[in-house]
Amino acid sequence: MNRLKGSDLLALGFMTFALFLGAGNIIFPPSAGMAAGENIGPAALGFLLTGVGLPLLTIVALARVGGGMALLTAPLGKHAGTLFAVAVYLAIGPLFATPRTAVVSFEMGIAPFAGNQATPLLIYTLAYFAAVLFLALNPGQLVDRIGKYITPVLLAALLVLGAAALLLPAGEIGPVTADYQAAPFVQGFLQGYLTMDTLGALVFGIVIATAIRDQGVTDGKLITRYSVIAGLIAAVGLSLVYLALFYLGATSQGIAGEAQNGVQILTAYVQHTFGTAGSLLLAVVITLACLTTAVGLLTACGEFFSKLLPVSYRGVVIALGLFSLLVANQGLTQLISFSIPVLVGLYPLAIVLVALSLLDGFWLSSARVFRPVMAVALAFGLVDGLAAAGWAQWVPGFFSQLPLADQSLGWLLPVLVTLVLAAACDRLLGRTVAVAA
């Protein structure tokens, strides 16, 4: 029975960290930190909960069932579970997240030097997806190529940026904006959604498990243990990156007070601190972060759809890579406008699914609990998605009167109530079956 050495585990953790660290993980913390200002503590804590805690719990849940989303969604039934998995894979893959990695890395790393025009974007995305396909078509070598080579370069660049943020702040921590005055923790919690890492973890679970098996590990308990260790290493790394970037944003109001997003904050900071060399550093960080995430997403989608459809892994990866290339060339603004409603709708489902899976030992029949609770989460996810798409007039008025509805958490109380009722019914029905037997 093969076991991984300490260096192999570290490489696996580095690979996991690199898979999660995409453009969103770098651009959203600075904007949240700037808005939070003096309330940076509770805001960062909320962000870490959804940006690090939930993805880690998702990896644990997937590792417990063997790494695949099909096993995680089994209590929902085959058809419902497959539909949910397809929606997650499409959203986190070729429709939104994978093309976004290319466009964001172009706009942050290349556009400042080559111009933000259609032709440079096309040339860049052709080269970008050629590299992504090269790495994704050999998933058995992901640990070696990403964990041992690409990630150390990425970490070195992030260490320079993070150390500069802490040792060379652009100014003092600024004042709190209106959104972060009343409930900074909740605002940070919601900002953590934007990283999409919980959805990403649902997709990456199979990639991590496959990478472990490709190292010759076959024992299920070892695969679970190594997956959790890799998740913990990635969680520590992500937490340090987020905290440094939160502080960078909170102390940059003097040089980037008019910035509309994290891209502008980071650009202003590195230009202020490092000049042109800073812009080149940022280009390296963003490009490598996006590249590794895109490889992980494409690999996971290839694994999933090649099992679902009568198409080989190679055929799926090439097709999805070319489709992502086409979508990426539509532009970032249009891409984000379409993706937000879908992500807002999917997130409650993902959170509830992971929570129920981790508590699986409490249910006598998982299906009795999963199905009604997930149905309620789906209903509220659809409502939040419609509102995010600008169609709030189609949503019945009582939804807006629920606790936390104005903070996009209106689903929380109904889901908890449904969970209590479903768990009670599960216990009652379980006793009845046991007596009859």
Summarize the structure.
The protein has 437 residues and is mostly helical. 78% of the residues lie in helices and 0% in strands. The model is unreliable at 432-437 (pLDDT under 50).
From the 3D coordinates, which CATH architecture of the largest domain would you assign? Up-down Bundle
Please name the CATH topology of the largest domain: Amino acid/polyamine transporter I
In the predicted model, the low-confidence regions spanning at least 5 consecutive residues are 432-437
**Average residue-wise pLDDT:** 85
Task: Please tell me how large the radius of gyration is.
Answer: 22 Å
Structural class: mainly alpha
Number of strands: 0
How much beta, percentage-wise? Answer: under 5%
CATH domain class of the largest domain: Mainly Alpha
Please give the domain count.
Answer: 2
Structure in words:
The chain has about 425 residues and is an all-alpha fold. Helix content is about 80%, strand content about 0%. It has two domains: about 5-360, Up-down Bundle (Amino acid/polyamine transporter I); about 365-435, no CATH class. It contains 19 helices and no strands. Helix 6 (about 95-115) packs antiparallel against helix 15. It starts with 5 loop residues before the first helix and ends with a helix. Mean pLDDT is about 85; it is low at about 430-435.
